[in-house]
Design brief:
By secondary structure, this protein is an alpha+beta fold. It is built from eleven helices and 18 strands. The protein starts with a helix and ends with a helix.
């Protein structure tokens, strides 16, 4: 249970947190182009008095607290990127007790929660105490707060990868604030993503009729990929998410491409899908199809994790959410920033700090009344390690 002084702080800064959410949600931040939000987050943290904040080469905004050259660390992160390609300010409105904006929940509301925790630690002296304990060698770990990049789509978890590269085996436990209060991602869903291109000689639709058509060939390939029977164990899926190609209605297409992925909550499922995929591609090439394959995303499944530590983390998060919302969250597999540390054997957990709906749609919203209990959950989780 949070101390009364912490609850008082959350209540006293509720309006500030809401205004921060409204401001941050409108800043465009497509995956791989998070510069504007990264700069905003860096400056905002420094304006609150945070020292040692830096932006790494992956566009993570990193605030290390009580971190020495070699001490263990605990990581908390929330991602800055959204799925939307907008480069102009994102449209926001407030109505019926909701803040409505593309990306406002996934993951801006969680990002604001993490930033307000950073502000609290900085303003109330918690950060200084962690630094003093680290310098004296009396702290069991440092704390790394990260406004991270590249969680969505073809961001390919670049931010999480960089943090794991920077701190490596020093990371004792790893948390991502992502999603809503109603569910926690406790297992990693791995995936592999491809850009698949088909080329043909093409020609005029009348004068060269009979020449192979890249769109037709790509369609044949999709047909065969959709005949794959997924394993019965666990959950394995596949999807063609985008297709493009051709020149005009009276041109035999010379070029067509698609984005394709398969996912699984087990390494065996991923290996099976890769074998099926490779077999179909090889068969099409033997038939004379000119196919080019580019891997554009790779998210690993879970490795060998200390289950005792992981279960402790799950209990802490579940009990905390139950305490402040009255309902325990569902536990489910997911594809999140935690995939990277989990694949490296680092105990990790993904949980959310708001309620809302419409994630990954332009109708996305957060329920304003859910933000306060969400902040209480977030503060409790981080302060458990301070």
């Amino acid at each position: 249970m949070l101390e009364q002084r912490v609850l008082d702080y959350i209540n006293a800064h509720a309006q500030e947190a809401r205004e921060l959410l409204i401001t941050l949600a409108q800043i465009p931040s497509p995956s791989n182009h998070e510069e504007k939000r990264a700069e905003f987050c860096r400056k905002w943290l420094e304006d609150q008095g945070a020292s040692g904040v830096f932006v790494d080469e992956a566009l993570n905004v990193v605030y290390p607290i009580g971190v020495t050259e070699d001490n263990p660390v605990v990581v908390f992160m929330a991602h800055t990127d959204v799925v939307f390609p907008d480069t102009d300010p994102l449209p926001l409105k407030i109505e019926d007790g909701k803040i409505c904006c593309p990306g406002v929940g996934d993951d801006t509301a969680n990002l604001v929660c993490l930033m307000m925790i950073a502000k609290y630690l900085t303003e109330t002296g918690g950060a200084d105490k962690l630094k003093e304990a680290a310098a004296a060698g009396t702290s069991p770990h440092g704390l790394v707060l990260v406004c991270n990049s590249g969680e969505e789509g073809l961001g390919n978890l670049k931010g999480s990868r960089k943090i794991c590269e920077t701190y490596g085996k020093r990371i004792q436990e790893f948390y991502s604030f992502d999603g809503s209060l109603s569910a926690m991602a406790t297992r990693a869903v791995g995936s592999k993503r491809f850009k698949i291109s088909v080329r043909t000689v093409g020609g005029h639709s009348y004068g060269s009729f009979g020449n192979p058509n890249a769109i037709a060939q790509l369609s044949e390939l999709i047909h065969d990929l959709y005949k794959i029977q997924v394993p019965s164990e666990g959950k394995t899926t596949y999807n063609v998410g985008m297709i493009s190609g051709g020149t005009s209605v009276n041109t035999i297409a010379q070029y067509a491409q698609m984005l394709y992925e398969f996912r699984s909550d087990s390494r065996e499922g991923l290996d099976y899908m890769e074998q099926q995929f490779d077999s179909i591609i090889a068969e099409k090439r033997q038939q004379g199809m000119d196919i080019q394959i580019e891997v554009v995303g790779l998210r690993p499944c879970e490795g060998d994790v200390d289950l005792t530590v992981k279960e402790k983390m799950i209990r802490l998060a579940s009990d905390t959410i139950l305490e402040y919302t009255g309902k325990a969250p569902d536990q489910c597999p997911g594809s999140t920033d935690c995939n990277i540390p989990l694949s490296l054997g680092i105990p990790s957990l993904c949980l959310g700090t708001y309620e809302g709906s419409g994630a990954h749609t332009r109708e996305e919203y957060v329920v304003i009344d859910s933000l306060m209990p969400g902040y209480e959950v977030g503060f409790q989780m981080v302060l458990s390690y301070v």
